[in-house]
UniProtKB/TrEMBL annotation:
Organism per entry: Penicillium cataractarum
GO biological process: demethylation
Origin superkingdom: Eukaryota
GO molecular function terms noted in the UniProt entry: demethylase activity; oxidoreductase activity
InterPro entries: AlkB-like, AlkB-like_sf, ALKBH4, Oxoglu/Fe-dep_dioxygenase_dom
Pfam family, one: 2OG-FeII_Oxy_2
Residues covered by the Fe2OG dioxygenase domain: 88-188
Stated name of the protein: Fe2OG dioxygenase domain-containing protein
């Protein structure tokens, strides 16, 4: 059992990023990359690619797809499951980022999901957290496990820029290389998100009567500071 105390909260804004270096060792990482590159079937298209285990992530509702049956975790995934929650995750997503791929700034939906973790493998990449005008870069180093809780989960967006080089804090450019991440999501079991953030919380937006289709538009609008009109 991975102890909760092995995760350390980063002493930064946003609050709520819990971090563990060396979740696995480099040999284990190499074995996984060999499996990812040789044994898994990836779509044949450029950009970020995803494979799903457990329930399947639904890109229309940002919850789980009720029409796709639960898939058991493959053997290689089992030792990579965080054991710091009371049960295994419901949705696991393996993503491949070739150099130049990214993920747009977003908040993982509050309505369907509660806890959220991400394991980084292969090349490092910089993730940017944003809240209004604030920007905080976090280097996602290989083999690190990150839990996004608290403000980092609910009130800041996170994303990875689509670029072939990251610019580090000291100004140096670091080329991106192949990166994989595994994200773990736990469905909310009972109760709703009560954070009340009308810009980023799909539950708060639903209660306000904002139509489903307009909810992500509201988050985009916030970046342009026009969310006030909904408050
Ligand atoms: O690739 C990562 O580390 C994070 C991906 C992410 O934010 C997501 O899948 O929601
Ligand atoms: Fe995310």
């Amino acid at each position: 059992m991975e102890e909760r105390s092995k995760f350390k909260e980063l002493p930064i804004q946003p609050q709520g990023i819990f971090w563990k270096d060396d979740f696995i060792d480099p040999e284990h990482e190499q074995q996984l990359i060999t499996i990812f590159q040789n044994e898994l079937e990836w779509a044949d298209r450029p950009g970020r690619l995803s494979l799903h285990y457990g329930y399947t992530f639904d890109y229309k509702t940002f919850g789980i797809d009720p029409d796709i049956p639960h898939k058991e975790f493959p053997e290689w995934l089992q030792p990579l499951i965080p054991t710091t929650e009371t049960r295994p995750p419901d949705q696991v997503c393996l993503q491949y980022y070739p150099p130049g791929a990214g993920i747009p700034p977003h908040v993982d939906a509050h309505g369907p999901y509660d806890q959220l973790y991400a394991l980084s493998l292969g090349g490092p990449a910089v993730m940017q957290f944003r809240r209004e005008e604030e920007r905080v870069d976090i280097d996602l180093t290989p083999r690190s496990m990150m839990q996004m809780a608290g403000d980092s989960r609910l009130h800041w967006t996170h994303g990875i820029k689509k670029r072939k080089n990251d610019i580090l804090a000291d100004g140096t450019q670091r080329p991106r290389t192949n990166r994989w991440s595994i994200t773990y999501r736990w469905l909310r079991d009972g109760g709703e998100c009560e954070c009340g953030n009308i810009v980023h919380c799909d539950t708060a937006q639903r209660r306000l009567g904002v139509e489903k289709e307009k909810r992500s538009v509201l988050a985009l609008a916030a970046e342009a500071s026009v969310a006030d009109q909904f408050s």
